[in-house]
Amino acid sequence: MNPTRGMEELPLLPALSTMVEQLPQGLVEILEWFRANGSHIWIVGGAIRNALLGTEINEYDLATTMTPQEMNAYPNTIPTGERFGTITFRNRGQSYEVTTLRTESGYNDGRRPDEVEWGDSLLVDLSRRDLTMNSIAVDASKHTYYDPFNGYDDLREGRIRSVGDPTRRLSEDALRILRCYRFMDQGNAGIWWPEQRLSDALRQIKPMIERIASERIWSEFRRILVGQHTSEIVQRMADDGILKQMVGLDWMQEDVRIQLLNHLEGNDVIDRLVVMMRSFGSNDCEQLSKRLRLSNLEKKNLMFRHSKLGHIPENMDSSLRVYAVALGAWSHQHLRIEQLFAEYETPLDSTLDHIQQCIERFSGLNINVHVEPLASGNYIMEQTGIQQGPKLGALKSWLFYEQVSRNLQSMDEMETLLCTLSWQTEDTTRWPKLQFP
What we know:
The chain is of the alpha+beta class. It is built from 22 helices and 10 strands.
């Protein structure tokens, strides 16, 4: 058996030699186990791509001539996808996915092959991969590599190209559509646009996104949202109709909301969704949350932050304190988002001046956004004689509001405050609460 038949065996490039020299010891031992058991094994996929690009390698995927049943002889494995030939090997606290060489046919669900047969050709196995940059294999023991589809040349040229017919490749696994957009963002290396045939296929095949599980869509999309060139990639997705296919909402060409994504501080994906959803309503946020299957916490944060957009606090110490505690740690980011939109939409408007003044004052106040109420319910009952009920709750909220707005620090100050408030009235509807807006 010659699993590398039909391919040229090439000496390792310097970047790949460095990768092999720096392989984790646990992976080296796994590779040695395969060789000791008479099987071929290669490093494939993203690790090689990242090594050639000079970026961090986060995981190593392996391809082998050994069948899943034979791999189970290793003392520490997980049958991750045994039906499809994938076994996870564990060693020295690290995990590595190893997949048997295979041929595939039928992709009726747009995700997985209907039929899988174990193969004996590395060339055939590489030919079913999505992009040329991901179709390179390294033999660490021989210090050689195989690149039958010229992926290295595409990497050097900054070109995204499919292996074979792009429509067929994308149809085999619709998630590849989103992966293509993710690979367009190459960080410090800039933006790599797909070659024309692949571009056409991405637009043509986009209805297949409906076949992808929402969790997988969100997993890929969130990685796109924190890229170095998020605005350009997401705008391309909008122009190609991918965003609408994903969440059922329309964005414009040169959409200001998308253009501001590159200017947003931090890597909070919910902040990015908030900015994108700025001109949409709460029902649209509900729809997006459902379509992407956001977690309960993600949805809660999206709805809360979205509800604050367009509301700006008064430029006074007391107002900014209440604002900061009501919004918590997100308050600074909210002001920054409002500033970004004001700068872009109305750079000479008084609103922008107001926001900038708020930011300056806010920064100097050193507010503890996690402050707790000084006056407990029991304390208030002892001081006022009010029993458990709505009035007690309303008075407690009022006292907390005053505590924050006046920056009170002690119970003596709270006792003095309580003496000045007209809490005896039964009409509590006008009593302030710590909230914004």
